[in-house]
Amino acid sequence: MKHFLLLAVSLSLTYGDFVLPDIEKYRVLGYAGGYVNPVGEQMNVHGGQRMSEDPTPVGPSDKWQMGESSKMVLALTIARVAAQGFDTEIPLQNVLDFQLGKGFENIIFIQLLTRQSGLPGATDMAVGHLDFFSQLQQETNFDVGVDNRALRHELTEHFLGENAQAYPLTEEESIVNWPIAAHILELVTNKTYEQLVYDEVFDQLGIEGCGFGPNTVDPSLPPSQPWSHIADAFGLYNIPITPSNQAESSTALAPANGLYCDMESFGRLMAVHLERPDDFLPQDAWDIIQNPYYSTAGFGMDFIDLGDDGIMGYSFGYGNAQSSGQSHSAFYIFFKYGFATYTRANALIIPGMRANTGLTMLNDALAAAASGGLVTKLDLNFL
What is the pLDDT of residues 322-366, one digit of tens each? Predict the structure, then answer.
């Protein structure tokens, strides 16, 4: 595999043609970002503060919640296990020890990953399953060595069991698809999801700065890592969420939104998508995970056709609606030009918010630097 050069850049410094935009005037609290360019160089930037009520600045090695970008790691794990013989078209009824509910009788594994499962989207879950998610949150434990397979089995039976019923298919993502897919892998391999990710992805790529659960459970000040916050649309209020085992996603949902990484490690996850090494995945597997499979949905990311600029893979997380913590995570991979950009923030950022303008400026600057000026603006109106 190629070796990627880390070039850390601090706030208000320049590197080559890259100038970090003054995005803090848009009330972006704390943030980090970076790119991997076509020759394999990685550059990371950061700024702002870790917590709204403490001036401690964001550091170059800080760890950030990955949010929905966590699905990309599970997709790589699934692809690795499939390359070793796992059948991605296996009927779920062949694996599970309970009777599937109405509409789920013939569901196969691959449908879990591409919005073809009939599992509830965010709207339906908010209406019908809040009590269940609250229960999962109370049972959450990210301590090292804790086996969470029973909790994911409980989630799987709740949504697929004989008392469940399939919803009409929509373009809306279901956050429970990914934990259920992870649990199927657990049953087939007799390994926990966490162990599979380490064995098949982190250890294979030499990644040491990623893990599961909150990026910190330390509530002391000054903050040792970025805290999550609840924010208003104008960035006037950023209310800190005290770190704890229950401050982010539940362990049951971790495959969908429960990982953390520092920027160097996340850049390595982006780099492997550009490098496509044969000793990690066969080329036909790379072709599958780097293209849409059903509508705009693919494995661990969505896709948009940019015309002459080719296919772009992306993930854009608005925050963690399944718990109290709120944060932002995004990545964009331009396969034609061979570069990727990524950003993080420690408060909720959605289109229409003032802070979103600042993060968009950062993405534009990263794209322009990574592409040598080929791409100077990311049109993110489709998000």
Answer: 444 467 888 999 999 999 999 999 887 777 777 888 888 888 899
- Give how far Cα 139 sits from Cα of 33, 130, 146, 273, 290, Å: 33, 14, 12, 35, 35
Burial class of residue 114 in the structure, from the number of CB atoms within 10 Å of its CB (0-12 exposed, 13-18 middle, 19+ buried): middle
> How many C-beta atoms lie closer than 10 Å to residue 62's C-beta?
23
CA atoms of 74 and 254, how far apart (whole Å): 10
pTM: 0.90
The tokens 């608005």 sit on which residue?
318
Distances (CA, A) of 73 to 41, 59, 223: 21, 24, 27
- Blockwise average pLDDT, block size 10, the chain, 383 residues: 31 50 84 93 93 96 92 96 96 95 92 86 76 86 86 95 84 85 97 96 97 93 94 81 85 91 96 96 95 84 87 75 60 94 85 79 89 76 45
Position 144, amino acid: V
Give the pLDDT of residue 235: 72
pLDDT at 246: 80
Could you give the 3-state DSSP secondary structure of residue 9?
A: strand
Residue 372, token pair as written in the block:
């040598």
Q: Is 27 helix (H, G, I), strand (E, B) or coil?
A: coil
At 227 the pLDDT is: 94
From CA 292, how far away is CA 301, in angstroms rounded? Answer: 9
Q: How far apart are CA 81 and CA 59, in angstroms?
A: 35
Question: And the tokens for 189?
Answer: 């391999």
Residue 188 contacts by C-beta under 8 Å, 6 or more apart in sequence? Answer: 81, 86, 90, 95
Residues 6+ apart with CB under 8 A from 382: 304
Residue 89 has a CB neighbour count (10 Å cut-off) of 8
Q: Where are the alpha helices (DSSP H) in the chain?
A: 70-83, 122-128, 130-138, 149-160, 177-189, 193-197, 203-205, 254-257, 263-275, 283-289, 354-370
Cross-strand pairs, 328: 345
Distance between CA 124 and CA 130 in Å, rounded? Answer: 10
| Burial class, 106, CB count within 10 angstroms (exposed 0-12 / middle 13-18 / buried 19+) | exposed
